[in-house]
Design brief:
The complex is a heterodimer of chains A (about 525) and B (about 300). Chain A is α+β, with helices and mostly antiparallel strands. Helix content of chain A is about 55%, strand content about 20%. Chain B is about 65% helix and about 10% strand. In chain B, helix 1 crosses helix 6, helix 1 packs across helix 9 and helix 6 runs antiparallel to helix 9. The chains are: A alpha+beta (about 525), B alpha+beta (about 300). The interface between A and B is large, with 73 and 75 residues.
């Protein structure tokens, strides 16, 4: 008997010591460095400390379409280089394009050339008419699949790079399912800025302005084949007036943002606004040098996400590999633009489908009220147990204390996030925790009524209640686990605390209280039990 | 020994007819509520229906009429306004319109700040949820309910027998339906937290049911009574003390949460509090009678 009691007491003592060691760092910062750093911690959920939660839908179809357009441009460039004239190109289905070629043997030559140069596409001969032939390029299924798979990963990486400079502690950017990204920024207060930072595509393009084309004609829909109509949108800082001015630019981008090496904010004293200066990588510098040399005196439009930011005249060849984006930015807008340009553009556009922002004041308020409710609820239970079961109730309360301690330790070990429903889960677990002891005590009372000796009654009570306790706990555990599987965010937090609470409860109810009774009986068989 | 319940001998099975009528009415109410949810006539939280919810704290008492007029002016006349008396807190809820996934919180906040300049406001929380994600969360929740029902039947069929499993699942369904119906009747908001409460109560009610079943099985084996109904009566009476004590402790914590847990947890706590009562009722008056009717009065032992 003594051996078993000693063994169980040691187990409880060790678990208690470990739990205290694990829980303390979550409660106070006033601890030795190594201890604090090495132990996992309970995190506070967004609903408790405030912050921004965003769920984005990645528009993968758009990424495929963009890739198609890029491939079409590349195919045209390859053909042109080898002296094959391309009359035009257009989309063909979701994952393909058609090039229009003049009559003759051009189509055959183009197919042979493109097949060799662009391995990720299939080329075939399309319509053949007297005035020309078309060649269809279609992405291979493997290529489409890889774009699909990469769109989310690339989005996650890019967004992470944009968030990192903000220095948000415990910021999370994680993929969800096939086309979702979930972003959590605890403690971040500016909702609109967060949305702008993560959802801006940030596709920077340099295109020539077609001064020969008439803007009026373009507005009517008469555009040269290679041109497109874009707008420059300017906001007057004083009056807030927004003006749109149309401009006809070449469709083909001479240079894009993926050749950017660095981007930084520059203050222009002249206009009072801030600008962003970008510097290109080696290839970009070479390209920019060539472009500016070839097009002196022409206007070069700097386009961000389809909107013209500015269209300065190229006065002279620029060899330094630097360009400036002006656009009447505030200092913060400019700094955010520099950040997104540095981190690169999103391959696929994203759409915010869920946005939850909690102010820090509500978070504080929630924690205080939740914890106060918990403490008072637990106190009521503790007092009731002592009132109703006297000494045995006290033993159950002692188990309840261990229950709460172990639960907190478990949460810290799992680095669980404590949410408001999570606090509710803890409170509910406390209410249910005494249930096992109630079951056992009621059984012991029944045995005592049959005039059995105290010690035999206790043992019989524990024995007979055992399977009832197990069955009732397992069913609760099943629902908690299913909640965890299908629940999202805060509900997951609730499921974690509830299922851990149930499991720990089994241990404290069956081991912790029993050892107290066994110890008392081992010293001297109890003659009476206050229950 | 302090005892709340002493040697009771209540004929629970004798009033099962009335209990069935009462339970039937509750389930019917729940079904009506569910249909109304699908027709969009229930007070669904924006996390399930999609839309925008803004909670703000003003410095002075809020003139609701004025806020209402301002919102109507910007085309959100159907917005749901909820004030918290004494705390100057206002919660504005705007439903998602059709497929439009446009976020409206910024406009609303800007408007209120501009038009109510002498009553400064701080935004405490914003939630904007597109209709698509709301639909996803809703179907996930229904899936969770269905899967847990099946898992429970399987577990109890293994531990007891199939009929007990089904009866327990029916009782759990009864609780979920009743709670949904009561919330629908009270016009309370049903959101993700409410679904959490439903599942929790499902789990709690099951615990209760299993405790009663366990005693029934034991008493069948000991052959204390000649008929099944009498065995049930005896068993329920035997565990009644435990049922009352446990319900009381859980009830105490739920009530503490209800009155002290703050506004965010209030409706969640209300659902739990009602659920504890309904869950306790159903394990006595729904689960056991179903087994009695299905199994007949013969004292066939439950395999273990």
């Amino acid at each position: 008997m003594w051996k078993s009691i000693r063994w169980r007491t040691t187990l409880i003592a060790v678990l208690t010591a470990l739990s205290i060691a694990v829980v303390l760092p979550s409660l106070t910062d006033n601890l030795p460095e190594t201890w604090r750093k090495k132990t996992p911690k309970i995190h506070l959920g967004l609903d408790l400390q405030g912050g921004v939660f965003l769920r984005l839908a990645v528009e993968i179809d758009k990424a495929i379409e963009n890739a198609t357009l890029r491939y079409a441009d590349e195919a045209r460039a390859i053909c042109r280089e080898k002296g094959i004239p391309v009359l035009g190109s257009q989309k063909d289905g979701a994952d393909g394009f058609a090039l229009k070629l003049p009559p003759g043997d051009f189509a055959g030559r183009a197919i042979a050339l493109l097949k060799e140069e662009m391995g990720s596409l299939d080329f075939s001969l399309g319509e053949v008419r007297p005035d020309g032939a078309s060649v269809t390029g279609r992405m291979k299924p493997a290529e489409v699949q890889s774009i699909r798979a990469n769109a989310v990963t690339q989005g996650v990486d890019t967004i992470r790079n944009r968030i990192d400079p903000e220095g948000v502690r415990e910021a999370q950017v994680i993929p969800e399912g096939e086309d979702r990204i979930v972003i959590q920024l605890p403690g971040f207060k500016e909702q609109q800025r967060a949305i702008a930072l993560v959802s801006q595509v940030a596709l920077l393009e340099f295109k020539l302005v077609d001064d020969g084309a008439s803007v009026d004609e373009a507005m009517k829909g008469n555009l040269p084949e290679d041109d497109q109509l874009l707008y420059q949108i300017t906001t007057d800082r004083q009056t807030g007036k927004i003006s749109k001015s149309p401009m006809v630019v070449k469709k083909r981008a001479l240079l894009t943002g993926d050749k950017i090496k660095a981007a930084k904010v520059q203050f222009e004293s002249r206009q009072g606004g801030a600008a962003v200066s970008v510097s290109f990588d080696a290839q970009g510098t070479k390209d920019f040098d060539r472009i500016t040399a070839e097009n002196v005196k022409r206007r070069l439009a700097i386009i961000l996400d389809g909107t013209i930011k500015s269209a300065p005249v190229i006065n002279e060849r620029i060899s330094g590999g630097e360009a400036q984006i002006t656009g009447n930015f505030t200092a913060e807008e400019a700094s955010d633009l520099a950040t997104v340009l540095r981190s690169g553009s999103l391959r696929a556009p994203v759409k915010v489908i869920q946005n939850v922002t909690v102010g820090p004041s509500l978070g504080q308020d929630s924690i205080q009220k939740g914890i106060r409710a918990g403490v008072i609820g637990a106190l009521l239970v503790v007092l009731f147990m002592v009132f109703y079961y006297r000494f045995a109730g006290l033993v159950a309360d002692f188990a309840l204390v261990f229950n709460i301690l172990f639960l907190l330790a478990g949460m810290a070990l799992l680095e669980a996030t404590l949410t408001l429903p999570g606090i509710a889960g803890v409170i509910l677990a406390i209410g249910m925790a005494v249930d096992s002891n109630v079951l056992i005590f009621e059984r012991i009372r029944e045995e005592l009524r049959t005039k059995k000796p105290v010690r035999a009654s206790i043992d019989a009570g524990y024995d007979k209640a055992f399977w009832t306790v197990v069955d009732s706990h397992v069913t609760t555990l099943i629902t908690a686990m299913i909640l965890f599987q299908f629940g999202t965010g805060p509900i997951k937090g609730f499921a974690v605390t509830l299922s851990m609470g149930v499991a720990i409860n089994l241990f404290t109810a069956l081991v912790c209280t029993k050892v107290v009774f066994d110890y008392l009986n081992a010293k001297r068989p109890m003659q009476a039990l206050s229950i | 020994m302090r005892e709340l319940i002493k040697n009771t001998n209540i004929d629970f099975m004798g009033i099962k007819k009335y209990a069935f009528i009462f339970s039937g009415a509750l389930v019917l109410l729940g079904l009506i509520g569910t249909v109304q949810i699908y027709r969009g006539h229930a007070n669904l939280g924006i996390d399930l229906a999609g839309g925008t919810s803004i909670q703000m704290r003003f410095q002075k008492p809020i003139e609701m009429d004025k806020v209402r007029a301002l919102l109507t002016g910007m085309g959100h006349g159907e917005a749901n306004l909820q004030g918290v008396p004494g705390e100057n807190i206002l919660i504005i809820k705007v439903g998602a319109k059709g497929k439009e996934e446009k976020m409206v919180s910024e406009q609303v906040i800007a408007l209120l700040k501009e038009k109510l300049p002498d009553n400064p406001v701080t935004v405490e929380s914003i939630a904007e949820i597109g209709p698509a994600i709301g639909k996803k969360l809703r179907s996930d929740a229904i899936l969770a309910l269905a899967v847990s029902a099946i898992a429970i039947i399987v577990y109890l069929a293994w531990r007891f027998e199939f009929k007990f499993g089904v009866a327990a699942a029916v009782a759990t369904f009864h609780d979920v339906a009743a709670l949904t119906g009561i919330f629908f009747l009270l016009g309370k908001e049903m959101d993700l937290l409410f679904i959490t409460a439903l599942l929790t109560i499902g789990g709690y009610s099951l615990t209760d049911t299993v405790v009663v079943f366990d005693r029934i099985r034991e008493n069948i084996r000991l052959r204390k009574k000649p008929t099944f109904s009498e065995t049930i009566n005896l068993s329920v009476n035997e565990v009644l003390s435990r049922t009352v004590v446990t319900s009381l402790t859980v009830f105490l914590t739920c009530v503490a949460l209800l009155f002290l847990g703050g506004i965010v947890l209030r409706e969640f706590a209300l659902a739990l509090t009602i659920g504890v009562v309904v869950g306790t009722y159903s394990s006595i008056f729904v689960a056991s009678p179903i087994v009695a009717i299905w199994r007949g009065e013969k004292m066939v032992e439950v395999k273990r």
